[in-house]
Specification:
Layout: E1 11-14, H1 27-40, E2 44-47, H2 59-73, E3 79-82, H3 88-101, E4 105-109, H4 118-131, E5 136-140, H5 142-145, H6 151-157, E6 163-168, H7 173-182, E7 186-189, H8 195-200, E8 205-208, H9 215-226, H10 230-248, H11 254-264, H12 281-292, E9 298-299, E10 302-303
Parallel strand pairs: 1-2, 1-8, 2-3, 3-4, 4-5, 5-6, 6-7, 7-8
Antiparallel strand pairs: 9-10
Helix pairs in contact: 1-2, 2-3, 3-4, 4-6, 6-7, 9-10, 11-12
Length: about 300
């Protein structure tokens, strides 16, 4: 399978935003976490996304996080900044601020709550694409926004020179394959359970939440497939599936479970912000047990 160019890397982590115990932005922790993720196998980072608690971080905090992570990882690691809001004007403001702070691209989600029709969705993305010099990664996650980016809309949007990628959480493989067949958009699996399936039909890579904890294991799935060992790639995906289920398919948001596990592993994370609540001790212990009980598997060029 020939894969699309990966404009922002192949193994991207949807990085959590570390906070201090006083609920302030932990820029030192963010720098340490970002450095660890890159060293562990991530070749791109997504900041200020849903996993990064974008609904409850201020515009100033978003800028500060981009600046701190850029300083920590240098100029060669692509940084994709989440800028999506329910307000087109505010989204444009955040896009311009992210560009100034050093982001390489903007992750723009479908406007939520107002549930605009497809013509309005298309106009929203086009206005943002025209407003700055940043390339855009569209974020299709109707389960959160209430509105799908229809495949026909996606195909039209792909004609804009700065709309070049998609984070796909649509759970619509047929629609995704239709867009892949008719455009040059670089698709990234936004659901960890779809990393290998979507890559197998031509995606560019993934934007992974689980990579916050096991970046090397996520990278190894794609590396095995690239090496032609599809059996190993499938085994690697299945090995990480229990952790994916625990982190992403429980009754708790992935941000809550991921931060609970990172904190237990003494890695930068800190508390979640309201309205989210921290995981309880039992859930945290179960997450740690799953992490510790993983079966070691050797992937191409990497052992973990």
């Amino acid at each position: 399978m020939k894969h699309r160019n990966a404009p922002f890397g192949r193994t991207l982590c949807a990085m959590v935003t570390p906070f201090t115990s006083a609920d302030t932005l932990d820029l030192d922790g963010a720098a340490r976490l970002a450095t660890r993720l890159v060293a562990g196998g991530c070749d791109g980072l997504v900041l200020n996304g849903t996993t990064g608690e974008s609904p409850t971080t201020t515009d100033a905090e978003k800028r500060e996080l981009i600046t701190a992570v850029r300083s920590a990882v240098g100029d060669t690691v692509p940084l994709v900044a989440g800028v999506g809001t329910a307000d087109t004007r505010h989204t444009i403001e955040l896009t311009l601020a992210a560009e100034k702070a050093g982001a390489d691209a903007a992750l723009v989600v479908t406007p939520y709550y107002s549930r605009p029709q497809q013509a309005a969705v298309e106009a929203h993305f086009l206005q943002i694409a025209d407003a700055s010099g940043l390339p855009l990664m569209l974020y299709d996650i109707p389960g959160r926004t209430g509105t799908r980016i229809a495949p026909s809309t996606m195909i039209r949007l792909a004609q804009h020179p700065r709309i070049i990628a998609v984070k796909d959480c649509s759970y619509d493989f047929f629609g995704t394959q239709k867009v892949l067949a008719e455009t040059e958009l670089a698709y990234y699996a936004g659901c960890d359970e779809h990393i290998l399936p979507l890559y197998a039909v031509g995606a560019a890579g993934c934007v992974s939440t689980v990579a916050n904890v096991v970046p090397g294991e996520v990278a190894a799935i794609l590396a095995a497939f690239d090496a032609g060992d599809t059996t190993l790639a499938a085994e690697l995906q299945s090995r990480v599936t229990p952790l994916i289920e625990a982190l992403m398919a429980s009754d708790l948001p992935g941000t809550v479970t991921t931060k609970a596990l990172l904190n237990t592993l003494n890695l930068p994370a800190g508390p979640v912000r309201p309205p989210l609540l921290a995981a309880d001790a039992r859930t945290t212990a179960e997450l740690l047990a799953l992490h510790e009980d993983r079966v070691p598997v050797t992937g191409p060029g990497r052992a973990f």
